[in-house]
Structures are given as structure tokens and as C-alpha cells.
Automatic annotation (TrEMBL):
<dbReference type="GO" id="GO:0055085">
    <property type="term" value="P:transmembrane transport"/>
</dbReference>
<protein>
    <submittedName>
        <fullName>ABC-type uncharacterized transport system, permease component</fullName>
    </submittedName>
</protein>
<keyword id="KW-0812">Transmembrane</keyword>
<keyword id="KW-0472">Membrane</keyword>
<feature type="transmembrane region" description="Helical">
    <location>
        <begin position="301"/>
        <end position="320"/>
    </location>
</feature>
<keyword id="KW-0813">Transport</keyword>
<feature type="transmembrane region" description="Helical">
    <location>
        <begin position="255"/>
        <end position="281"/>
    </location>
</feature>
<dbReference type="Pfam" id="PF00528">
    <property type="entry name" value="BPD_transp_1"/>
</dbReference>
<keyword id="KW-1133">Transmembrane helix</keyword>
<feature type="domain" description="ABC transmembrane type-1">
    <location>
        <begin position="105"/>
        <end position="320"/>
    </location>
</feature>
<feature type="transmembrane region" description="Helical">
    <location>
        <begin position="111"/>
        <end position="128"/>
    </location>
</feature>
<dbReference type="GO" id="GO:0005886">
    <property type="term" value="C:plasma membrane"/>
</dbReference>
<dbReference type="InterPro" id="IPR000515">
    <property type="entry name" value="MetI-like"/>
</dbReference>
<dbReference type="GO" id="GO:0042884">
    <property type="term" value="P:microcin transport"/>
</dbReference>
<dbReference type="InterPro" id="IPR035906">
    <property type="entry name" value="MetI-like_sf"/>
</dbReference>
<feature type="transmembrane region" description="Helical">
    <location>
        <begin position="140"/>
        <end position="165"/>
    </location>
</feature>
<comment type="similarity">
    <text>Belongs to the binding-protein-dependent transport system permease family.</text>
</comment>
Amino acid sequence: MIPTLFGVMLLTFVVTQFVPGGPVEQLLAQMEGLGNGGEVAGSTSVYRGDSGLDDVRLAQLKELYGFDQPPATRFVNMMKNYLVFDFGNSYYYHQSVADLVISRMPVSMSLGLWSFVIVYGVCIPLGISKAVRDGSRFDMLTSTAILIGYAIPGFVLAIVLIVLFGGGSFWNIFPLRGIVSDGWADMGMVQKILDYLWHMVLPITSGAVGSLAVMTMLTKNSFLEEIRKQYVLTARAKGLSEQQVLYKHVFRNGIIPIITGFPGYFIAAFFTGSLLIETIFSLDGMGLLAYQSVLNRDYPVVLGTLYFFTIIGLFSRLLSDLSYVVVDPRISFDRTD
């Protein structure tokens, strides 16, 4: 995990050194757009619109952003700070990267958590039902429905839902902006919950539908493989009912591939964002923050969030590996035979 984390950060840092339009260039472009007498506030007030920018002041700008040091020195200093989770301040938003990420977390957590609950809550029972009724009309119809949903991109589905239910051309039922209404703080507890859920219907539907097909088919195939094994025939021969065979024998083996992916999916649900869904529904989440940071060459946000989410991703992978041992005692990392 440590070499992977270091390699990801090193590779990304090297790439940022060759990307045109860095923070200094971005600031210069903003200065040129201020017009006559325009002044940049704070530490960058050394420049006025028509006065030009000499080498001394350009050097001051580079020092302001830390670009007066060699790249190797900057990378080492950055990693030292990141080890204690000091991500510095955003060049563009002029606030702490940690505070900026925390402020965007509720949106991404809302989308991810509800998508997680819907995907696992629907796909596991649906996949089991499809495995038990493999080849039936129910299996064919549900497979067609979920594959159509999988084939439709999330942002296209979002636009369709807006047109149908967001006041686009038909019904004006659901709101299109934010996760709560403007007067949410003054509402009662029940009203707050209902208002929040009301805002979440369209974004969550748009983001969750595409994930249903993968998890449903994974569940179906896993259980179908177990149902066809010899121990199931033996259990039936002993006189056990189909329900007993399914839930006492097949379930604990068939659920292993799904459960082992549970930790990674659960953690990712809290911290990932969807750029297109957040943009369409005007939600300030992590996806939109990452995209804007790349466009604005806001390197502290780009590198800081990458470091944090890489750790989260590696940790979730570790939990997934460990869950194999917990769920299936036949697996051992210590055995060499």
C-alpha cells in the first residue's frame, strides 16, 4: 500500500509539472482581465492592470505559490505535510483544502450512501430470484429491464427525468437544485427529512440505475453456480425443502463474491462523487470540486484529495481482501500448498 500510494502521488506530481497554464499563469490571466486600474487583493496586489509585470514581481508570485523551489524539494515537502494530513490552502478558493473537502462531503455522501443502499437492497434479492427462476419469463423480463437501464448513461437518464418530472415539459414534481430547500433550517424534523428525500429522488435514481445490472447479474451467476453443485443435489436428496437448501447451504456460499466487495463499495459510496450528476442537478459535491480544481490548476486540492482518496481506496481494498478470510474460512493467506 505504501509504495502504491507513493507511486500515485509521484506520477501525478510529475504530470502537473508539464501541464500548461499553472497557478501563476492562471493568476496572470486573471490580472490581465481586470482592466484599467484593476487590482488583485491580498498578497498578489503587487500587480496593477496596465503596469505590466517585471521579473521581480513574477519571482514574488512564484515564491507565493512555492514554485521558486526545485520540483524534488517541493515534492518532498508536500509528502511530509501530507503524512500529517496537512493539505495546505486552495489557490482558487483561498481556504483550507480540508475545510473545502468537508464542506462538499454531505452531497457526495448523500448520493453515494443512498445509491449503496438501493443497489444492495434491490440487487441481492433480485439476483437470487433470477437464479432460482433461471430461464423463466421473470428472468428474461428483469434481465431486459436492467440491461436497458445499464445501457442508458446516468446523465442521459438524468435529463430524461428532468424533462418528465422536473418541470421540463411534463410534470413539475421534483426540485432540480441542491439537496434541501432554502428554508430547510426553519422546518420541523419530519419536514426536513421529507424535503431532503424529495430533493434526492432524481439524482439518486440517475446514479443508481446503472449499477443495478452489474450487481444483479453478479448475484444471479454466483447463486446459479452454487445451485448446480453436487452438495445441493445431496441436500435435496436428504429431503430438505428448497427454502432450506437455498438459505442454509447455497446462500452462505453464493453470497461470498458479493459480500467481499461490500467494504470497498461501502467506503467508496461515502467519498466519491459524480461530476455529471452533480452538474446537472446543481449539487456541490466532490465530483464537481475535482473537475473545477483540475480546470483551475488548483494543485493543493487536486493532489490533497488524490492523496486522501488513494488512502481510502487502498484501505477499502485491504478490507475486501480481509473479508474473504472472514466470510470463507477455506481461504488463508498463510498457506503455501
